[in-house]
């Protein structure tokens, strides 16, 4: 293992967000989220998961700092910030009359054309990305002809095509069927390792977080209750506190863990 | 596989080539319709006479030259320019408001411009060195810019979806129409004559100076629209997605609204209210070249120019000897089209 600097990865310090006068996140400290690992952000509805990610992505007005490998991203204009740390919204790309390749090129040029690259190079780079994501065969199809899962993959390819060093995904699995959920998770794990990305995803599926993520971060009332290996974070006690559910964590024959819930806790 | 890339890149290039051809074709039919527009009329001109009058004025008699240069050409070119301005404004509007029913006419910009102009006409404003015509145009511009700003503010305050935009627009249309009616009520005979002619939308008052101003504005604004083509394309995939890719959406929207209000206001200021071009042209463009804004914006502009050019022709030949106000023709043709768009919206995206 190589020597790691103490400020390596993505680190959130003193992050606060308020909607009007209502504080949603107060003084959140999170991370370091290391390179090459997929980290799940968990928590019940309204716990501030999406807000945290949007604020980290620069889409919300927030106070505090976000550093990536020691570089403070907060004072950067959005266009520059998005080159380092890219946020992907929960909504799928709209089904418009735009081919997947057009969408890739538009994402590439959205903040000004990279002067050096020719159109042929742009197309090659876009195709390489679509190939990584596994939808190279859909390149000339229009977004309005694709299924939700395929559009989600196209959105991911757009993001990867921008070559960010950190990727923040807001519930990338929520609109997908189990096949595409597994496809997207496998893809994220592979690309995170290959491109040495910092990958943070908001999840609702606890079992996916437990088995397919390297790290987990549990949000409770706008604060981080626990952060670490998923097995250490997703304990029955934590689930009881955060989700108000009775839950058990079991280990299956193949080494997989699974959480089974047996009802809600009343009277809290 | 890397060995798939050449074929796909090839397909993509063919598609781009095809779109360029479509744009070229649009330019072709536009030129043709402008020429026909010049040739047809009470004094019908043969194609050779027309071309000679245009390119070798010495070879034709004075009267023909006068008809072509002072009457027919300004009229025909004004139709094309106004159509182009409305087509471009409509295309940008549908993108930034994310609404297929958005257009200068349906969302009240035209009505606001009409109100602004009616203020200047009816109240008989004069500022000494400024010609009255420019004052009318300026007043129309201020009101239509104001209506765009009101619309944008309302939509953002309510975080509204498709429905909110249209409802706010309809409210604006009715408010400004009522205000125009009020101005008509208080107007004297002369001003009323002037105003009625103007609210119906007519190209017959086109002159080389108004044409020059509108054409110049279009030529200045269009490059800025094209420069925003990539960010506007990403905006079509969702506002959040565009923002997440680093596009400064509020700034993009403000710049676009400024362009839209300039284009609409100038169009309304010189030829009055001409409906549905800004609504229909973007839909035709989308069908023809898709939503890559590098092609969609020019295609919508050219379609708008072509349709209004045709409408202007129909307006002159519909009743022999009389030029029907063009606004009436575009509204009559536009309403069925509007209904088709509304009824089709259920099935996928328009």
Automatic annotation (TrEMBL), chain B:
The keyword Transport applies. CDD domains: TM_ABC_iron-siderophores_like. Gene3D superfamilies: ABC transporter involved in vitamin B12 uptake, BtuC. Keywords: Cell membrane, Membrane, Transmembrane, Transmembrane helix, Transport. Its main location: membrane. This is Iron ABC transporter permease. InterPro entries: ABC_BtuC-like, ABC_transptr_permease_BtuC. Belongs to the binding-protein-dependent transport system permease family. FecCD subfamily.
